[in-house]
Amino acid sequence: MTVNRIGRKNFLTKLAAKRIETWMGRKRDQNMNKLHFFSPILLKWNKEKNDRQMPWKGEKDPYKIWLSEVILQQTRVEQGLKYYEKFITAFPDVHQLANAHERSIYKCWEGLGYYTRCKNLIVTAQNVSKNLKGRFPDNYDEIKKLKGIGPYTAAAIASFAFNEQRAVVDGNVFRVLARIFGIEEPIDSTKGKKAFNALAGKLLDKKNPALYNQAIMDFGAVVCKPVPICEHCPFKQKCEAFLNDKIFSLPVKGKKVLIKKRWFNYVLLEYKEKFAVRQRHAKDIWHNLFEFLLVESGKEFDEKEIVKEAKKKKWIGANSYEIEYVSPVCKQQLSHQLIKGRFTKLKLHRKPELPPDILWIRKKELKKYAFPMFINQHLRKMDT
Ligand code: SF4
After folding, report:
1. Over the stretch 17-69, which tens digit does the pLDDT of each residue have?
2. Which residue from 378, 383, 350 is spatially nearest to 291, judged by alpha carbons?
3. Side-chain half-sphere CA neighbours of 236 within 13 A
4. 236 CA to middle of ligand 1, Å?
5. CA–CA gap between residue 331 and residue 329 (Å, rounded)
6. I need a surface site. Which of 61, 246, 304, 343 has the fewest CB within 10 A?
């Protein structure tokens, strides 16, 4: 390479670096500007246009806020609403929840999914009721120590109930900030989470943390939705995603969700109008819910294979049963698993010797037990 060509290359490299620096500087300045306009625009929108109604909005009772936030983790508001009402009616305060029979709490939670939330709800209710005399801690750090409460829920309770200056960062907030500020850091990476949390903390309106937090979540839920309504958006002129045609590429998610496929073949053993059910105790999905006798298989099983497994497990003996039906394949999609399977109903002539954890429940009594949705769908068909 000649001296001239090397000189030119160095010059172009420096020029490119300079341009990047200028662009980054401009971007930094733009974003610094946005730090100032963000909260006033958001609060103005909230005052003039936000008519989103939710029963827990403006609530100051930490118990009710906690309940609503736990119910809403990984749940749409429309679905969570009726569960919130059900819980508040059945358990108006933390002592009543703490002293309730576990089975009745699971029954209330039935259908909401992510049952670990319900388990943690019970642990925290008992802790607050017994060890803290029914009073929720009044600050973020102490609230976060309670079982099942992560940074988002702790920030929501601390700001809504106690007006603590804590910014909430949930899925809606990630989306709003990623789009307006053009942040391409994946929201599920450690670096991304740190960056979003730091930005959210800077943007928080320190005089009105509760109002601000509710406003940004509402804004993400009704305007900057996954499919946003940009034409009615007050940030339109300043939103990086809107100006650069990146609405649907922001926020960025780094990790791919791997879906595990499982086959659940349920055997409905019926003897004298009673059904054999057991509670799920293993560390797995549907923890603590009830189910019929399960044959899990790595692939689809037909009637013969299911009956063979039931015999192997000594649930039935030779000539002691009739097959009433085998259902078509049913399925339920969970966030990380796809459950498929069949229901095989066997009418027994003799009562088998079964392990002591298996209960014999009358058909009409089954309603009192909490089952996963996969089974409830089948129970509804049995009733019709
Ligand atoms: S302009 Fe569109 S993408 Fe940008 S904040 Fe508003 S609604 Fe969201």
Report:
1. 555 455 445 555 566 667 888 999 999 999 999 999 999 999 999 999 999 99
2. 378
3. 9
4. 6
5. 7
6. 304
Expressed in angstroms and rounded, the spacing between residue 238 Cα and the centre of ligand 1 is: 9
Ligand 1 neighbours (beta carbon < 6 A): 179-180, 223-224, 228, 230, 233, 235-236, 239, 241-242, 247
Active-site annotation holds for 69: yes
Written as six digits, the tokens of 127 are: 């802790």
pLDDT tens-digit readout, 87-133: 999 999 999 999 999 999 999 999 998 899 999 999 999 999 999 99
Of 59, 69, 102, 303, the catalytic one is 69
d(CA 231, ligand 1 centre) in Å? 8
**Cβ–Cβ under 8 Å, residues 279 and 273:** no
Lowest mean pLDDT among 11-20, 205-214, 306-315: 11-20
Tell the residue nearest (CA) to atom 8 of ligand 1. Answer: 224
